[in-house]
Fold this protein.
Amino acid sequence: MTEPAKAKVDMEKLVSLCRRRGFIFPSSEIYGGLSSCWDYGPLGVELKRNIKDAWWRAMVQQRDDMVGLDSSILMHPQTWEASGHVQGFSDPLVECKECHRRWRSDELEGDKCPECGGELTEPRLFNLMFKTFMGPVEDEASVVYLRPETAQGMFVNFENVLNTTRKRLPFGIAQIGKSFRNEVTTGNFIFRSREFEQMEIEFFVKPGTDQQWFDYWVEERINWYAGLGIKRENLKLRPHEKEELAHYARACSDINYLFPMGWAELEGIANRGDFDLVQHASSSGKGLSYYDEEAKEHIVPYIIEPSAGVDRTFLALLCDAYDEDEAEGEKRVLLHLHPDLAPLKAAVLPLSRKEHLASFAKDIYADLRRHWMVGYDDAQSIGRRYRRQDEIGTPFCVTVDFESLEDKQVTIRERDSLRQIRVPIEGLEATLRAKLGGEDLFVLPEGGRVWKE
Ligand code: ATP
């Protein structure tokens, strides 16, 4: 298969759509914004929740070998000593002697400042963890860090989970939560920010079976993205070279996505060996091991870690879903979002605001929103309203017209194909449920008919 040279949408279009429709705003915008922090608006928060719910359902709730966790963001400072973050979580930085901008030396091409061409300082290491103080006294003894990954919360709870769930190997702990990194170079919209959300799994396995589980998780995770509609040709696996591997990793592969700025990491999957449990056992003095009943001995499990970013998944999904075409004689922007992810599953559109039609349509809306997040829009022409829903990825529009009052039927319009069917209001919920589940629009319920090919 030939690789696409370039993503089909540029970043400005996405940023503008997100801004215009209330998916994402710059943080503290009225004060001029805060660099590389973002606020998810009314539609963005729905899409983000749907992404996290889809991950949680597939990775935790539908599996026997996984349990969830929600550990605190602030952790005992010894955690970060044991994990190696205090010592090693740093990027090499250079500063321009002229304009004083800082750059990651490992990302620079050439030895001059990309901004002004000035001379650069020698690289120095810069720790990426945000530091703060716990309690009223701001001294070295009260330093705590904002976690730069959610992973450590799962390692330090290994024994708690083992003792309370009686899980046997192999099993995993999963969590979703905020992480913070004082990144040196940020940018590319929500791709790299200083506050972001991760969806991480720590999967504990018997040593010797680690390679097989590593391969399993690589495949499983690629399939998860593809299952949500991301095109496979926009996903690429990038195994790390030996010399690139972090000191603790036995193997690592990135799942890269073809973002507007090029191929970049969406998720990292690492075989961490026994590094984390050994480190925390020796730092805490607790024996973090597992009693293997077959072998009748204590072992330290190896860990496979699939670590994904919520915000990067959000961006990848938007890139993949974005499209422009022509509908009903007009240019339109549309998001081909998977129904599970779309902020609104349907929108109810009465053809007129006349009282008797409006109250009839509102009853339909009230009924549907007991089941899903559904929109209601009665402003401007029907064409405009369809465009507005297409642009935010609503899979189905339910149009209520004057005939609906007589025949007790409504029209369902499908976002991607523009096809329409006319179906009885009684049973509308079941019809929509089937369509949201992937049934072809032209599979008709009793009393339904094709409205527009
Ligand atoms: P990069 O090389 O791009 O900095 P990383 O290798 O440091 O990423 P990991 O530590 O493996 O990233 O984190 C796992 C996942 O968390 C990444 O694949 C990404 O989806 C997400 N992530 C990491 N850092 C950021 C960030 N600054 N902003 C948004 N998402 C991030």
